[in-house]
Amino acid sequence: MHATAATILIVDDEAKNRKLLDLLLRPTGYRTEYAASGEEALAAVRRSAPDLILLDVMMPGLDGYQVASRLKSQAATARIPIIMLTALTERGARLAGLDAGAEEFLSKPVDRAELWLRVRNLLRLKAYGDLQQHSAALQRQVSARTADLQRFRTAMDATADAILLIDRASMRFVEVNATSCSMLGYSRAELLAVGPEALGGGTRAQYEGAYDAMIAGRGGAELYETELRRKDGSLVQVEVHRQALRSGADWIIVGVVRDITERKLAQQRLHHQAHHDALTGLPNRTLFYDTLKKTLALAGEHGWQVAVLFVDLDHFKNVNDTLGHLVGDELLVRFSERLVQCVRLRDTVGRLGGDEFALILVTPEGQQGAAQVANKILAALRAPFELRGHTVNVSASIGITIHPDDADTPDELIKYADTAMYQAKHAGRDTYRFFTAQMNAAVLARLELETALRAALENGEFVLHYQPKARLGDGRVAGLEALLRWQRPGHGLVAPGEFIALLEETGLIVRVGSWVIATACRQIRRWLDSPVGAVALSINVSGRQFVEGALDAEVLAALVENAVPAELLELELTETSLMANTARTIDCLRNLKRQHVKISIDDFGTGYSSLAYLRRFPIDTLKIDIAFIRDVTSNPDAAAIVRAIISMAHSLNLNVVAEGVETPAQLSYLRRHHCDQIQGYYFSRPLDAERVGELLLQGRRLAPPEPCDERRQTLLIVDDDPLMLGMLVELFKDDGYHVETARSGAEGFDALARHEAQVILCDQCMPTLDGAAFLDQVKAMYPDTVRIVLSGNADLASMMAAVNSGAVDRFYTKPWDGALLRDNIRQAFRHHRPPCGGGPGPHGGDALPEAA
Ligand SMILES: Nc1nc2c(ncn2[C@@H]2O[C@@H]3COP(=O)(O)O[C@H]4[C@@H](O)[C@H](n5cnc6c(=O)[nH]c(N)nc65)O[C@@H]4COP(=O)(O)O[C@H]3[C@H]2O)c(=O)[nH]1
306: which strand partners? Predict the structure, then answer.
């Protein structure tokens, strides 16, 4: 087969020689081809390489040597054996042939047997050489393939993704990389012994179906996320990409699996961050709304009641402002922890922002269940918080709405709960309120009021009224306070109590405040240009004007514009607005003060300012809050506060104004305790500009105090029974006392404020305030008085208690002996130590005579 397949190229320029050689070779079965020259020989070899060449040496053109050397010089033809045919016998010719690369020589004429032998041997040798070459090439191929495979393996093993090859026919893994093993916790051998159903959630049939669909090009090749089960049973989150590849007659499914645990965790973290409050870790507004929406949907299906509680910390801003944001933040965290402890696991607590928290309670008990939780929250706040070395006490105000009674949507439920929370604040804080339809009406009314207020400024509906302040020294008007009024169409004149808070909340107060400053300065100018002359005027300014406007610049500009001397203008600020924005406020006030504008603190006593704190502000005047003045003659605490404020203000060289003085008793009390000025209905209500101008022109002033006769002995008799009162006045008419009478404790206090009584005789049995209780308060306010009670026998026990507490110095049981009573009152006056000195007091002198 080999012999028949071999092709021999005969190269000779002589046709007869070619023929002869062909004839000689024919019996061997070799195929023969011919070339008549060296050039033809080279072309023939190029066309199809022969297995052997018989090459004549002597040829015109390229001779045999040249042909041989060209063929041997090229790799593709170098291995073709060449037998040179030459008539030349000399050695030099042979050597030249060998040099050119010929393997053998045959001398012409050619011997047939020798030709066959040489041809056969050379062909065998070539075949052997070809085989060697072939196997070397094969070897090279195999090592190259092995190296490729090794590289592929290494690359597969080096990838961070797991790569698994599944044979569709056997449904077994046929190749897996190192990552597959580490990701799934199997050895390579273990993995190669199982199929995909060992890792995934599907059955073998399901996988087969999926693979067949992929093979048929019906999808399944897209990226998808799933979980694979590790050998130890744990799950790993993965992203899988699959592809079907043909391998001969079979199909291989290549799965590239990426561990996405980290990515999933990062996604979860991001999701958590987007839905939770960073400070407290509670659900934020978005998640809270979402949860509420889902809860309402479930509630609808099951007929549940859902309560929404809106919880707001009381005075949280004060904590932030005075103790700093770090303490404020910590308070919010601790507070949220207490909130969470007040609810069940299934309830939701969220932070809606700032100090606003909200709860979702699924409660079969409706209102009752919600109230229980609200009470629990309020109780949980009773214990103080220990925050960075500070002990902080806080309370909360809570508003509650119930679904389905109050509303059906999250928006409405939260809005209404917010409204109810504000009601809780108005009710004094530290309490809760359920939402009611009336509250909704109030919210609507508020909206309406806000719209009307916005228009009021544009429509020029605001006016200023002016209330005089009178000096207690000479009774003259010391100045006026400008008070805002709103001439609301259809509503008459509206007092600021009804709209100032809303102006503050909406920020409108800044623009209205500017209007007040401008109007007040214009009015001072008008009075300056009129017979009224110079009038000191104070205006109220809101804290927001300090923060949001350039208050100092604005005030100074208005003064300049109207050519008003700065000392005629005074700004009144509340303690709270001072406390809120200290640095900015101090700057602004100092600026104004440098220009001689006066500064007054309004509603003093209601805030938290300490003496040290006040000294930081350039203040001229303190105005004592109306609430203390209202009770100053009857409530020992209010009286003590008023006296303390007056003495503190004087020690700081500040002027003191008492606000809301309505009665002569209040006036006398304040006068007696050296208050500087009073403002109140007693002297004048706030009046419009024209009427107050008239009052000023008339030179109206306070009546001077009654001259005080220090030696006068005043007896105050208090009895609700006019008959008895008359009898007692009659009894003492000849004893030379100045007798004051009162029909109740309240009247008694008034009388004591107006007149300095040394001895008080009081009936025990009076409605509202009995004698002992009245005298107990009198003792606190006027400790130097001698206090005597007329009582019935039945009151003995309470009388003894009153005597023991020091409220009552003496008591007489009815009916009394008139002469003895007169005698005892006389002695009481003798025992009283007058405030201006002299005479022994009731506790230092002789004991009073025994009671009858
Ligand atoms: N019961 C009683 N009340 C008396 C008596 N004497 C005066 N008043 C009232 O007490 C309030 C004193 O003003 P305020 O403490 O500055 O309290 C003011 C002030 O805080 C605020 N306000 C008034 N006008 C302005 C303003 O132009 N700007 C700002 N920001 N607030 C203003 O509204 C509050 C209330 O103002 P008004 O309703 O005018 O109420 C005035 C006045 O009419 C009295 O003898 N008895």
Answer: 362, 403
In the reported structure, the alpha carbon of residue 217 is separated from the centroid of ligand 1 by a whole-number distance in angstroms of 85
ipTM, interface predicted TM-score of the complex? 0.96
Sheet with 348-353, side-by-side order of all strands: 348-353, 356-362, 306-313, 396-403, 432-434
Map out the domains of the chain with their CATH numbers.
2-135 (3.40.50.2300), 159-264 (3.30.450.20), 276-435 (3.30.70.270), 456-623+681-698 (3.20.20.450), 714-831 (3.40.50.2300)
pLDDT at residue 847, as a whole number: 34
Asked whether the beta carbons of 416 and 422 are under 8 A apart, the reply is: no
Closest CA to 583 of 606, 634, 617, 625: 617
Predicted TM-score (pTM) of the model is: 0.55
Whether 67 contacts 55, CB under 8 Å? yes
Give the residue from 433, 574, 607 showing the smallest Cα distance to 504. Answer: 574
* C-alpha distance from residue 309 to each of 132, 160, 419, 706, 780 (Å): 94, 51, 11, 60, 45
Lowest mean pLDDT among 85-99, 282-296, 350-364, 799-813: 85-99
Query: Which atom of ligand 1 is nearest the CA belonging to 542?
Result: 30
Cα–Cα dist 229/454, whole Å: 67
For residues 512 and 575, which has the higher predicted lDDT (pLDDT)? 512
**pLDDT at 612 (0 to 100):** 66
Q: How many CB atoms lie within 10 A of CB 213?
A: 14
Each residue's pLDDT tens digit, 485-509 = 999 999 999 999 999 999 998 889 9
- For tokens 């969220």, what's the residue? 350
Percent of the chain with pLDDT over 70: 95
- pLDDT confidence tier of residue 342, bands split at 50, 70 and 90: very high
Q: Which two tokens stand for residue 283?
A: 């659900």
Amino acid at residue number 367? Q
Nearest to 807 by CA among 844, 762, 839, 767: 762
* Phi, psi dihedrals of residue 645, rounded to the nearest 5°: -65, -45
Task: Return d(Cα 429, Cα 606) in angstroms, integer.
Answer: 16
CA distance 27 to 662: 154
Q: What are phi and psi of 302, to 5 degrees?
A: -100, -5
- Ligand 1 center from residue 626 Cα (angstroms): 10
Question: CB of 795 closer than 6 A to ligand 1?
Answer: no
CA atoms within 13 A on the CB side of 657: 25
Q: Give the position, in ligand 1's atom list, of the atom nearest the Cα of 513.
A: 28
Judge contact between 738 and 713, C-beta under 8 A.
yes
Distance 483 CA to ligand 1 centre (A): 6
- Burial class of residue 589, CB neighbours in 10 A (0-12, 13-18, 19+): buried
Give the mean model confidence (pLDDT) for residues 671-700: 96
In angstroms, the CA 636 to CA 777 distance is 6
The number of the ligand 1 atom at minimal distance from the alpha carbon of 681 is: 45
CB 467 within 8 A of CB 695: no
pLDDT in tens, 694-735: 999 999 999 888 776 777 899 999 999 999 999 999 999 999
Residue closest via CA to ligand 1's atom 43 equals 686
Cis amide leading into 842 (omega within 30): no
Point out the ligand 1 atom lying closest to the alpha carbon of residue 603.
15
Asked if the model's pLDDT at residue 844 lies above 50, the reply is no
